[in-house]
Amino acid sequence: MDKRLLFVLPLALAACGEAERLNPDPADVALAVHWEACAEGPGSCASIEVPLDWNAPGDETLPFFVRRIPTAEPVSKGQLWLLEGGPGAAGWGFVEVAAIFQSIAPGYDLYLPDYRGTGNSSWLGCEDRGYAFETDPDCMAALLARHGEDLRHYDTTSAALDIGNTIEAIRGAGERVYVYGVSYGTFAVNRYLTLFPDQADGAILDSVCPPTGCDVMMDRNFVEVARFVFEGCAADPLCGEKLGDDPWGKLLDLLGRLEAGHCEAFLGYPSNRIVLEQLVGYATNDAFTAAVATSAVHRLGRCDEADVAALDNLVDWMRNGMGAGFGPGAGSGAAFSPYLSDHVVFSEFWPEGLDRETAEEILAELPFQTGALLSWVEAKDRWSFPPSHTPDSLYAWAPTETPLLLLNGDLDGQTPIDAIRDAEAAFVNEAQHLVEVPLANHGVLATSAFTAEREDFTCGMEIAAAFLADPQGAPKTGCIDRIPGFDFAGPPGLAAALYGTADLWENDAAQGLHIAPALRPAQERALTSLREKLQGPLRF
């Protein structure tokens, strides 16, 4: 039976207080926290010895690394903990955007933890192989030999206990504590709230992973997002003119024509179809890049000489990102662990019975695929770590009265909003809200539209800032009404950057490559994100 069907059991039914046993009495754990200047990057850092096994706190320990970036204001209002996605990502990713969170939560000190197994928290990796994005069989064998059965303690529950017990150890009397998580970080936040339901004063879950585990069958989600975008194309005067009254049908027809030999001048089959599938699957996940997917369908369908040249430019742009390292920054702070990532996915997210044959059957029902699910299956086939075990009762929304803000975009194929609709029935406190932000991608704070008076503040940031200022109040979502629809024309700089033309849809030999791109920083970030997705495999 798929384990997702088992998670309807409420936490209260856990036999003999199952969840309580996972959370030891603070009196049994005395964490020593000493802040020192960080070896790299801002703030002060602490390496805290925490139990390897929180059920046996007096036995072996491992280091839990936390970076603290103090507020610039004279008096601190409290703590804001920032939990990264991944899984497998360390807290370093928040260093570069710390100023944004200081604007969202003025007066709060930021706390950036490295989950156990990442960064400086007992990193699962091999130094002689550097900070890789994919697992290596030899390194996997070395880690298995080094850690053995202890690997079962590198899980989300233990990570949540590290965080909650550290907060308990350092929190001053009356000090307020907020927690923010993005993507897999929301799964960790929900687990933390399950184990410490009364500790935080509020929590923000951005791009929410369901409590049953993030969905590894992302190809299906990307198809649904793409369908939504192409349906929007039909209602747009420009896009509808180019692709007709059934753009989705035109895409499906083009995929079949490519398989039959259409447009051999561009890469040839199957490469031309693969490029289109990847582009449609990933470009439609952002309102800014969605027009790249629709215009590519138009150009590839027409396939004249100038279109092929433009599409060749697009492929060159895609390839320019290959070979780039994963994650922001460099050095130990950026130490992503693909081993922890796969360990969490295969122990905590993987549906029972999902194997290569089942995955291929699922993919065969889809009009196109991005390769996300097959990359997981291939990794699963070579996986050898002993699995961690999570009680069924923990695969549920946290039983907490803590004020909550759940943010999700309708263009999110990594953590789709339809997978978390049941959160509204689970979180019934008047201060707990699920907010759908139109045309936002994965990571609402970063990808939602800039609609506020400040050019560097997105709609998601505006909603989050209002929540942190007044977590008991109704969410302030007025910015949603100011979000514009799709721009299928795109700025001239977009066409110049990707196609080398003046227009996304048509070819203008008179201007061509001489147009200087004039993209905003947020648009540049959207293009960088798209290119990273196109390199794959995609994570949460």
Q: Please, could you describe this protein's structure?
A:
The protein is an alpha/beta fold. Helices cover 37% and strands 11% of the residues. It is built from 19 helices and 9 strands. It has helices spanning 18-22, 98-104, 137-147, 156-170, 184-195, 218-234, 237-243, 247-259, 271-283, 290-302, 305-319, 338-349, 356-364, 372-381, 423-426, 444-447, 459-469, 492-498, 521-535; strands spanning 36-37, 44-51, 61-69, 78-83, 108-113, 176-183, 202-208, 404-409, 432-437. Strands 1-2-3-5-4-6-7-8-9 form a 9-stranded mixed beta sheet, with helices on both faces. Helix 15 links the parallel strand 8 and strand 9 (432-437). Helix 4 packs across helix 5 (184-195), helix 8 (247-259) packs across helix 10 and helix 10 runs antiparallel to helix 11. The longest helix is centred in the middle third of the chain and has 17 residues, at 218-234. The radius of gyration is 24 Å and the shape is globular. Mean pLDDT is 89; it is low at 1-21 and 322-333.
